[in-house]
UniProtKB/TrEMBL annotation:
Main enzyme class: transferase
Recorded GO MF terms: glutathione transferase activity
Domain (GST N-terminal): residue spans on this chain: 3-82
Family recorded in the similarity comment: Belongs to the GST superfamily.
GO cellular component: cytoplasm
Entry protein name: glutathione transferase
Organism: Tetracentron sinense (Spur-leaf)
Superkingdom as given in the UniProt entry: Eukaryota
Length: 218
């Protein structure tokens, strides 16, 4: 019997992009449902009554919420192709640590750049510090996990689409400060699972301008 798989998502969400990349890496077919974040569907509210947020993966009628939890679920259920987490427990723990670092540090700094008036420069400085730490962890490896694309890459690469917005809002260059990290992102973009999942950076910037106008920042 065919498995029913539905993804509730918003096309510009970096968290949704994580799930789309993981599904593409595994070669899994699914139904995509775009959500209007200003008018959330009854299905989304029913499937994620706690946070009422995307992404939500519905597998045979059962919801899985939160991007990292969904990506790990996908990796565990479809083990036979393109493992995202290493099998070694210590390396797994390290991957989860750096993925958590992305969510706690990179996401926070990025949001402050475009969402908090007057904090753009300071947040940009902090973002560069975080990205330099990630560059140190990457080292000379092609991907964070080594030779193969994996969990930390999935966690971070969706934000490559947001670099243009960060740079434009705070007037700085990520590539000038973190060339190895941008080279890594471009390497990831050579994978169809990534390039087909990441939204156009200019669409993100247009969306950000709309949000800023709506909440009275611009």
């Amino acid at each position: 019997m065919a498995e029913a798989l539905v993804l509730l998502d918003f096309s510009l969400s970096p968290f949704g992009v994580r799930v789309r990349i993981a599904l593409a890496e595994k070669g899994i077919k699914y139904e995509y449902k775009e959500e209007d974040l200003k008018d959330k569907s009854s299905l989304l509210l029913q499937m994620n009554p706690v946070h009422k947020q995307i992404p939500v993966l519905i597998h045979n009628g059962k919801p899985i919420c939160e991007s990292f939890i969904i990506v790990q679920y996908i990796d565990e259920v479809w083990k036979d192709k393109s493992p995202l987490l290493p099998s070694d427990p210590y390396r797994q723990a390290q991957a989860r640590f750096w993925a958590d670092f992305v969510d706690k540090k990179v996401v926070n700094c990025g949001r402050r750049i475009w969402l908090v008036k007057g904090e753009e420069k300071e947040a940009a400085k902090e973002l560069i510090e975080c990205l330099k730490m990630l560059e140190g962890e990457l080292g000379d490896k092609p991907y964070f996990g080594g030779e193969s694309f994996g969990f930390v890459d999935v966690a971070l690469v969706p934000f490559y689409s947001w670099f243009y917005t960060y740079e434009t809002c705070a007037n700085f260059s990520i590539e000038a400060e973190c060339p190895k990290l941008v080279a890594w992102a471009k390497r990831c973009m050579e994978k169809e699972s990534v390039s087909n999942s990441l939204p156009d950076p200019h669409k993100i910037y247009d969306y950000v301008l709309q949000v800023r106008k709506r909440i009275g920042i611009d």
